[in-house]
Amino acid sequence: MRVKTKQRLQVRESIEIAQGVWSLVLQYDAGSAPDTVVPGQFVGVYPRDGARLLPRPISICGWDEKDHTLRLVYRVVGGGTREFTTLAPGDAVDVLGILGNGYDLAALTGRRVLLLGGGIGAPPLLELAKRIQLENRKAGRDGSVTSVLGYRTNELFLSEEFSQYGPVVIATDDGTVGVHGNVIDAVREKNLSFDAICACGPMPMLRGVKALSEERGVSCWLSLEERMACGVGVCLGCVAKTTKKNAHSKVNNARVCTEGPVFNAADVEI
Ligand SMILES: Cc1cc2nc3c(=O)[nH]c(=O)nc-3n(C[C@H](O)[C@H](O)[C@H](O)COP(=O)(O)OP(=O)(O)OC[C@H]3O[C@@H](n4cnc5c(N)ncnc54)[C@H](O)[C@@H]3O)c2cc1C
Ligand code: FES
Q: pLDDT tens for residues 30-40?
């Protein structure tokens, strides 16, 4: 297992699942596949164009430990992600990782977990929903997963896959599907009950989610997004403000790529 090195993987599948949103499945050789992948961890995908030096951080949306395949779901934003859309089955792609720290599965087992995914924040929560269900079954515990997914318009993606693991509530900015508003509006409108929250999405949403967790007095984990260069903790380009002093830096910050991207909401100032 070489988890923090650059590896060449083969593209198994590359398909557009909604306008500008792509699902990319990458194949490891059995000998080089990671032993474990924690939902919320990510990889750095290198563009082939040498002018784009930095790996693009993309969360793990799915991990099949039998097939040794990694699924990434990304939105086309700029040159790097646009280039990824040209990948075809059989192509090789260089990937750094598995990187970062994911969600605390042990703390979520046996609980009524609310997953809040804003836009392209939803993909890592799909692997999390799967793994929470698996852990509950293994432990013989009665936990549950409710997913609230927010989209801009009726161009939904992954929502049917989430429904394999529990109820799904949709919110759209334009009101064309589900609740008119954001994921927090949907939680309030549907009067959802839960005792832990895991969220991934844009920063204004995460601030609202942190406030919601404080209001309800429940544990909450947030996946933060910062611009990244090295992706492995060296350049300090991705720090977030923390409530406690960091063991590495001795100041109130943490590297999102290394200590995160998933943090306990109580530990970060956002
Ligand atoms: C931990 C983490 C997980 C992520 N997971 C996903 C995911 O699952 N799906 C998805 O669609 N997007 C995800 N992103 C955002 C994704 O990394 C950017 O959209 C992508 O890097 C844009 O690259 P680009 O070349 O297309 O855009 P450009 O704007 O041309 O990129 C220029 C540079 O800025 C960096 N950059 C641009 N936007 C971001 C951003 N939002 N976050 C970090 N770096 C950025 C790029 O990596 C590149 O180095 C994640 C970001 C982080 C930090
Ligand atoms: S990206 Fe370099 S330290 Fe996080």
A: 888 898 899 99
